[in-house]
Amino acid sequence: MFRREVKSISDLLNMYLRREGLETPLLQKRAIDAWDTIMGAPITRYTGEKFIKNQTLFVKITNPALRQDLSMMRTRIVQRINQAVGSQVITDVKVY
Question: Most buried among 7, 18, 45, 50, by the most CB within 10 A?
Fold first, then answer.
C-alpha cells in the first residue's frame, strides 16, 4: 500500500499562482482594494486613483489637509494594509 501526500485546495492554488507568476499581482490588487475598507468612507470619498509601483502604493487625495494628515500616518497605513493582505506587499505609501 502507498501513501499519498494530501494537500488542501488552498495550498495547491497558492503553488499554482506562484509558479505562473500571478501571486504578486493578485496580492497587489488585494492591497489596493484594502485601502477603501481600511481607511473608511470619509477618506474614500476624497480618494482618486490608486496604483502600486516598486512596492509603493500611490494614492491620489483631492483634499490637501487630508493629504497632509495621511502622509504623516504612512507607516501605520503600510502596516494595516500589509496585515489585511496577509503578506508584505507594500513598503511605502505616497499620497499626492
Answer: 50
Tens of pLDDT, residues 50-80: 999 999 999 999 999 999 999 999 999 999 9
Q: Which residues contact 65 (CB under 8 A, 6 or more apart)?
A: none
Spatial CA neighbour of 96 closest among 46, 54, 55: 46
Give φ, ψ of 36 to 5 degrees: -65, -40
pLDDT digits (tens, 9 = 90+) for 18-31: 899 889 999 999 99
Q: In what order do the strands lie in the sheet with 56-61?
A: 47-53, 56-61, 92-95
Q: How far is CA 86 from the centre of its chain?
A: 9
pTM: 0.83
Name the residue range of residue 86's domain: 27-95
Residue 4 domain flag: no
Task: Give the residue ranges of DSSP H helices in the chain.
Answer: 9-20, 23-39, 41-44, 64-72, 74-85
Amino acid present at 18: R
C-alpha cell of residue 29: 490588487
